[in-house]
Write a structure and sequence with these properties.
It comes from Staphylothermus hellenicus (strain DSM 12710 / JCM 10830 / BK20S6-10-b1 / P8). The protein has 11 helices and 14 strands. By secondary structure, the chain is of the alpha/beta class. The chain starts with a strand and ends in a 5-residue tail after the last helix. The C terminus is likely disordered.
Length: about 350
């Protein structure tokens, strides 16, 4: 079976692709490679890599593809606000384009990578039937994409939406702008954990390997169980308040718990119920927050991760790319040679 993974060189994608290869799948990666090729360099001879954009790639790459995992997006809330229109163009219209082209070209299964951030700020425990409250462009684009791709599902084309909890853990394209990973980096580099005010906000978490395995679980499940369905991805025991998260991370890393507040009070707070994917598909997570924290800590201690790699903070790297683009345009307009 051939699986196309958009964003296959990214934080989740680079882990998911390797798990697919381990299970014997034929894998195609579609990625702009904004962060380079390091995350997939060791598997380049085992996959097909197409450097392109979901907004305008040639549909020929879908020929012979059985399933599409659509992960390509401008990731996280700060990145989404750099250029809200661009975020909608990619995360909403781009992914709707992938879904429509997938159906047109005979793909059997399409899985959209969405986010629990669509729940925004709400009390109580939220499930897939709860109302949504997307507060950022990133969250709004996710929900808009969900609404357009789900109706595409039919007897020949299975569509599934996975609303992922906040992801953590080591990846080949590392990110330190995610809560757990960022706290570990802060503890390693400064000896304190920086906690976003006011610390009482709730957030659900899931390890990068666990969320990757959710895509594979959907792929290998019967169509009638997953078609036109939305699943929250995570585990009920990993809903946690941010201040308590920081305490747990320090303990897992064997360090004294010291913290500093930063930012304005977070407008996002939500707890999520993950019973549906567990009960319907038999999905279980394997990793705890402590496991992921120790994994990242040890990678930093052993030099496998560089805490100062600019590519690990997504919004900063996008800003650098935008500045480089502006510089190139200025040089071209002035008739200078780089």
């Amino acid at each position: 079976m051939r699986v196309l993974v958009t964003g296959g060189a990214g934080y989740i994608g680079s882990v998911l692709v390797r798990l697919l290869l381990e299970r014997g799948y034929d894998v195609v990666i579609l990625d702009r490679l904004f962060f380079g090729r390091d995350s997939i360099r060791d598997i380049e001879d085992r996959v097909k890599i197409v450097k392109d954009d979901i907004r305008w790639f040639d549909p020929w790459i879908l020929e012979g593809v059985d399933a599409v995992f659509d992960l390509a997006a401008l990731s996280n809330d700060p990145s989404g606000e750099l250029d809200p229109e661009k975020t909608l163009e990619i995360n909403y219209r781009g992914r709707v384009r992938v879904a429509n082209l997938s159906k047109k070209h005979g793909v059997s299964k399409y899985v959209l990578a969405s986010s629990c951030s669509v729940y925004g700020f709400q009390p109580g425990i939220l499930n897939e039937n709860s109302s949504v409250n997307p507060l950022t462009t990133y969250a709004k684009a996710n929900y808009m994409a969900e609404r357009e791709v789900i109706p595409l599902g039919d007897r020949k084309f299975t569509v599934t939406v996975l609303r992922q909890a906040t992801v953590y853990g080591y990846s080949y394209r590392m990110r330190f702008d995610l809560a757990v990973n960022g706290m570990v980096r802060s503890l390693y580099k400064y000896g304190v954990i920086k906690v976003m005010r006011d610390g009482t906000q709730w957030r659900p978490f899931v390890h990068v390997k666990d969320t990757s395995n959710a895509f594979i679980k959907v792929l290998e499940s019967d169509e009638e169980l997953v078609n036109r369905e939305v699943f929250n991805v995570g585990s009920n025991d990993q809903n946690i308040q941010i201040f308590e998260l920081a305490r747990k991370i320090a303990e897992a890393c064997g360090q004294e718990f010291r913290y500093e507040w930063y930012g304005s009070p977070d407008k996002r707070s939500y707890r999520v119920d993950f019973s549906k994917i567990r009960d319907r598909l038999g999905y279980r997570t394997r990793f705890k927050i402590e496991d992921g924290a120790r994994e990242v800590w040890n990678a930093l201690v052993n030099g496998l991760l560089d805490p100062d790699d600019p590519r690990t903070i997504t919004v900063k790297w996008y800003k650098k790319l935008l500045d480089m683009h502006k510089l190139i345009k200025e040089v071209e307009l002035n008739g200078k040679i780089l």
